[in-house]
């Protein structure tokens, strides 16, 4: 690949993220990224300083994208139990199939190792929980803290799906969350039958 003279940090970090997903976090080096994006390894070192900073910058960009997607969904779904299920189902589509989900867990490991990235994860948990909580404000008898409870159910359903990945992950999540809403939040009413 001929060397490119210019490439934005955004484009470089997108290439780094693809490389991490395709080959695992350990595969991300300045040399492999140089091959993937067409800039020289020395240019990349000048921009990012160290491999640790490159990984952090790559994953901070991924958190930025997730924050944007979550905020966009929160702004468009109905403020109902069905809206909460729709939001989490939409977020689940990004996981893809089982191989992509499993590879994503390797990347999550990198988030958990870095205090700054863990902090971003904690901030996203709070934002997601608040957005879900907002969907239940008009639902009679919805317990306080339902947003975090539903987010936790979502994460659990993703994990259980991964052990027996039959069908699309978002369908599995939708079914699991509808049962959660029906059993825990408002007995006798499924999320899909809520007004919305």
Task: Write structural notes for this entry.
This protein is mainly alpha-helical. It folds into two domains: 1-49, Arc Repressor Mutant, subunit A, CATH 1.10.10.60; 63-193, Tetracycline Repressor, domain 2 (Orthogonal Bundle), CATH 1.10.357.10. It has nine helices and no strands. The longest helix is centred in the N-terminal third of the chain and has 26 residues, at 51-76. Pfam families: TetR_N (PF00440). This is AcrR family transcriptional regulator. Keywords: DNA-binding, Transcription, Transcription regulation.
What would you say about this model in short?
With 196 residues, this protein is mainly alpha-helical. It is built from 9 helices and no strands. The longest helix has 26 residues, at 51-76.
List keywords for this structure.
about 200 residues, mainly alpha, Tetracycline Repressor, domain 2, 2 domains, Arc Repressor Mutant, subunit A
Tell me the structural class: mainly alpha
> Judging from the principal axes of the Cα atoms, what is the shape?
elongated
> In what range is the share of β-strand residues?
under 5%
Largest sheet: none
Domain module tally: 2
**If helices are DSSP runs of H or I spanning 4 or more residues, what is the number of helices?**
9
Whole-number mean pLDDT: 88
Distance linking N and C termini: 51 Å
Number of strands: 0
CATH class of the largest domain: Mainly Alpha
Low-confidence stretches: none
Radius of gyration: 19 Å
What pattern of helices and strands is seen along the backbone? HHHHHHHHH
Report helical residue fraction: over 70%
If classified by CATH, what would the architecture of the largest domain be?
Answer: Orthogonal Bundle
For this structure, what is the CATH homologous superfamily of the largest domain?
Answer: Tetracycline Repressor, domain 2
At the third CATH level, what is the topology name of the largest domain?
Tetracycline Repressor, domain 2
Protein name: AcrR family transcriptional regulator
Domain HTH tetR-type: 6-66
Pfam family, one: TetR_N
Keywords: DNA-binding, Transcription, Transcription regulation
